[in-house]
Amino acid sequence: MKLNIAVLPGDGIGPEIVEQAMKAVKAVCDKFGHELTYKEALVGAIAIDETGNPYPDETHELCMQSDAVLFGAIGSPKYDNNPSAKVRPEQGLLGMRKKLGLYANIRPVTTFPSLIHKSPLQADLVEGADFMCIRELTGGMYFGRPQGRSEDGNTAYDTCIYTREEVERIVRLAYQYAEKRRKKVTIVDKANVLATSRLWRQVSQEIEKEYPNVETEYMFVDNAAMRIIQWPKSFDVMVTENMFGDILTDEASVITGSLGMLPSASIGIHTSVFEPIHGSYPQAAGKNIANPLATVLSAALMFEYAFNLMEEGKIIRDAVTASMDANVVTEDIAAEGKAYNTSEVGDWIAGWIAKQ
């Protein structure tokens, strides 16, 4: 099979972790006889520095011509600490989502037996937790207009906007995934306060009737935030709007023991993007210490979601599990004793795949 991938390393640790994921991708393609074509492009702060645009037209064209996008991270202290910057790296991420029609961010939240002790929650609460967060990506406050500040700079405003079409699309996707899993959907909103949430609930109640074999529960976002900590095993598929999803998915990721372990897939109209959920971690950039496993697992999702190559995705996940069992991991999740560097973990995983 021919696989055509756009590779966007981005900022901070992005280039290092994407390099390790590509080692796994190449190992899988060699093993299964796939023809791999890939090309790198600029995005984020590095793109601003070189072109003035965090998501250049050339990068967009490459993404449009590719079957999938493997993406690292965006963000730089140079812009984080400069509130007056007119162009910011994060605008590149928002622009990519909008232009590629990336309407759903899918984050599996699973626990790893060897990491249970790293979770801030008690082992009996998190052991066996396995749920999927589906976050709407193209609507809500991040894209609502008007947005801005008053002339004197002392008042700021954002507008949260959702359409029926946007809600229907994402809620139906949640039900489709739930049918393949444990047949439960949790719809998270703030319908007691927000008009957009009342639209979400109204549309969801209509769609709910189309899936009588799936259990549906509605939950206010503050309650959902509490339940993720109190009883994470009660969730199967959670679906919510853009800003709520941004916050809840980061909260959920912590219960697994490491933010460096969780992948994500952004499903799009034109192509789909696969990326770790963590940020650019600029403090570790260039030090060869960053955990590449979330990006490697994102590559596994890419094989499954973009190319429907389930066996290829599984062998990457098995390789990650094997590396953790062998304690070939970076310092953030290493047990007592030796911690491996980023490139050593990537080499070990690629080698394990080749030997199977």
Could you outline the blueprint of secondary structure elements for this entry?
Layout: E1 2-10, H1 14-32, E2 35-40, H2 45-51, H3 57-64, E3 68-73, H4 77-80, H5 89-100, E4 102-110, H6 123-126, E5 130-136, E6 148-149, E7 156-157, H7 164-180, E8 184-189, H8 195-208, E9 215-220, H9 221-230, E10 237-240, H10 242-254, E11 263-268, E12 273-276, H11 293-307, H12 310-325, H13 342-355
Parallel strand pairs: 1-2, 1-3, 3-12, 5-10, 8-9, 8-10
Antiparallel strand pairs: 4-5, 4-11, 6-7, 11-12
Helix pairs in contact: 1-11, 1-13, 7-8, 9-10, 11-12, 12-13
Task: Describe the model.
With 356 residues, this protein is an alpha/beta fold. Helix content is 43%, strand content 19%. The protein has 13 helices and twelve strands. The protein has helices at residues 14-32, 45-51, 57-64, 77-80, 89-100, 123-126, 164-180, 195-208, 221-230, 242-254, 293-307, 310-325, 342-355, and strands spanning 2-10, 35-40, 68-73, 102-110, 130-136, 148-149, 156-157, 184-189, 215-220, 237-240, 263-268, 273-276. The strands form two sheets. It has a ten-stranded mixed sheet with strand order 2-1-3-12-11-4-5-10-8-9, sandwiched between helices. Strands 6-7 form a two-stranded antiparallel ribbon. Helix 1 links the parallel strand 1 and strand 2. The two termini are 20 Å apart.
